[in-house]
């Protein structure tokens, strides 16, 4: 950690005196190795022998971008079902009932049906040791990927990969377990809906992606989740849980060749499926036809202002995705013109600029927190700054080059916590593919002022936008904000 702090301090000091990224960085690379099996399953390995720990993660290109309204939220429910009973666990239980001579339990647990999978699943004796192994497990669902992961000591790599295989390939979808998980997911939704931030997010996404809002809503709706069935779980499995739509990301104290060998042994017979995005193409989100303003009343102390635009999509305009990341980083630096105009002037207490890299239209959002007393002036000033983004003097050449250096330093910092960096590798595989991320920092360093201008002119400057202002009903009475206040020149 000490070395990394020194590195970042060194890079930051160089940024203050105007050294270029070429003088500091000769080419940061993400040192993973990867291999694709014959069935299309991609194996990504990032070795780090510093501590005897390993993370085993499965990533599936699934999530809300695959969900029409009638399936919205079911990718998330599937994630909750992932760590429940699978065919291997069923066989293990049935073997145990047999060993006790309990034919009543054997039959009541439908063991004759479960045993039909024994030849496919193979040896399940490894499950005897699961309770003795110290490991953590979890999963998460996003717009364009779902991931599942185990953390454990490196000596348990083989066991964790087998456990992952059986959960991925042989789910059971027990009816009773599904009913329990439905209630858990509904409780999660209720908690989310009790938070003001949920309504800001949903309002912005529903307005930006007005024709297909379910495709940007990973949580889904209570109605859809409550009506889930085993048949719908099987539908998701058959469409998206195929090896050619999945990656395994293994990081930590591992040997890549050993991982590739284990993956071949365990996953090589997993049958390749149809390309789900050929059979079920992604929707085309129509562009905004006009700017729109929403005034959202929630129980919040401050005034939260968010502007949103359609940004670039991976596979359609990769060059702008790099430019978006660099520009966002430039204007988020404390010394940037944007931060000086809003933060140093004390018009706002927080200002964030973010582009979300996505295959199916990544949103661009600028989020500002201000006070009721300064809200009108802050909104006016923020709009003036956004209108000035195309100004060739909006940022300096030094700011541009320094941003590239500091972005690389941030990556090195994130690698220090490898278990979390595993999720980053999974995200990039799902959204962009391994080659995009392998060359990410090389392409960042190639971003020019002209690239950033093209990005801004294509997606932000004089383009329709959505602006949402969230404030309390009491503060709205004081401000009496109108659509004209938010959209007018």
In terms of topology, how is this protein built?
Blueprint lengths: L1 H16 L3 H4 L8 E4 L5 E6 L5 E8 L13 H8 L5 H14 L2 H6 L2 H4 L3 H4 L14 E6 L4 E8 L3 H13 L5 H19 L2 H13 L13 H5 L3 H11 L5 E7 L3 H12 L8 H4 L12 E6 L5 E8 L7 H15 L4 H8 L5 E6 L7 E8 L4 H13 L9 H19 L2 H15 L1 H5 L1 H6 L3 H11 L6 E6 L1 H7 L3 H5 L2
Parallel strand pairs: 2-6, 7-11
Antiparallel strand pairs: 1-2, 3-5, 3-6, 4-5, 8-10, 8-11, 9-10
Supply the key terms:
single chain; 489 residues; alpha+beta; six-stranded mixed β-sheet; five-stranded mixed β-sheet; 11 strands; 15% strand
Description:
By secondary structure, the protein is of the alpha+beta class. It has 24 helices and eleven strands. The protein has a six-stranded mixed β-sheet, sandwiched between helices. A five-stranded mixed β-sheet has the order 7-11-8-10-9, sandwiched between helices. A hairpin with a 7-residue loop joins strand 9 (350-355) and strand 10 (363-370). Helix 3 (74-81) crosses helix 9 (175-193) and helix 15 crosses helix 22 (449-459). The protein starts with a helix and ends with a helix.
């Amino acid at each position: 950690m000490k070395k990394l702090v020194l590195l970042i301090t060194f890079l930051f000091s160089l940024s203050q005196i105007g050294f270029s990224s070429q003088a500091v960085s000769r080419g940061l690379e993400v040192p993973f190795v990867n291999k694709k099996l014959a069935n299309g399953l991609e194996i990504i390995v990032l070795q780090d022998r510093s501590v005897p720990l390993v993370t085993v993660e499965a990533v599936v290109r699934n999530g809300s971008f695959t969900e029409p309204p009638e399936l919205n939220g079911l990718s998330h429910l599937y994630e909750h079902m992932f760590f429940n009973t699978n065919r291997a666990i069923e066989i293990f239980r049935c073997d145990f009932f047999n060993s006790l001579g309990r034919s009543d339990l054997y039959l009541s647990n439908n063991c004759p049906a479960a045993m039909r999978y024994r030849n496919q699943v193979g040896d399940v004796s490894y499950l005897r040791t699961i309770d003795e192994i110290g490991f953590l497990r979890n999963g998460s669902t996003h717009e364009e990927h779902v991931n599942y992961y185990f953390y454990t000591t490196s000596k348990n790599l083989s066991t964790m990969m087998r456990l992952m295989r059986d959960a991925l390939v042989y789910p059971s979808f027990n009816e009773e377990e599904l009913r329990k998980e439905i209630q858990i997911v509904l409780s999660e939704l209720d908690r989310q809906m009790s938070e003001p931030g949920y309504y800001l997010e949903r309002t912005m996404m529903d307005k930006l992606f007005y024709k297909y809002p379910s495709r940007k809503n990973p949580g889904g709706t209570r109605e859809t989740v409550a009506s889930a069935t085993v048949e719908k779980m099987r539908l998701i499995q058959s469409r998206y849980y195929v090896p050619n739509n999945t990656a395994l990301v293994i990081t930590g104290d591992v040997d890549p060749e050993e991982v590739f060998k284990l993956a071949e042994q365990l996953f090589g017979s997993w049958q390749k499926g149809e390309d789900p995005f050929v059979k079920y193409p992604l929707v085309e989100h129509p562009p905004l036809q006009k700017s729109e303003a929403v005034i959202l009343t929630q129980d919040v102390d401050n005034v939260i202002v968010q502007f949103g635009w359609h940004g670039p999509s991976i596979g359609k305009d990769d060059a702008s995705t790099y430019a978006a990341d660099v520009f966002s980083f430039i204007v988020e630096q404390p010394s940037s013109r944007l931060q000086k105009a809003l933060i140093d002037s004390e018009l706002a207490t927080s200002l964030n600029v973010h582009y979300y890299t996505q295959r199916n239209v990544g949103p661009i959002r600028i989020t500002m927190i201000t006070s009721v007393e300064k809200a009108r002036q802050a909104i006016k000033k923020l709009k003036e700054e956004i209108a000035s983004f195309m100004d060739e003097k909006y940022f300096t050449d030094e700011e541009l080059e320094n941003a590239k250096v500091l972005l690389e330093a941030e990556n090195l910092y994130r690698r220090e916590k490898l278990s979390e960096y595993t999720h980053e590798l999974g995200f990039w595989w799902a959204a962009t593919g391994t080659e995009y991320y392998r060359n990410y920092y090389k392409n960042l360093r190639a971003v020019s002022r002209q690239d950033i201008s093209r990005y801004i002119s294509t997606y932000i400057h004089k383009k329709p936008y959505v602006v949402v202002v969230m404030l309390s009903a009491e503060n709205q009475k004081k401000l009496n904000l109108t659509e004209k206040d938010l959209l007018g020149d």
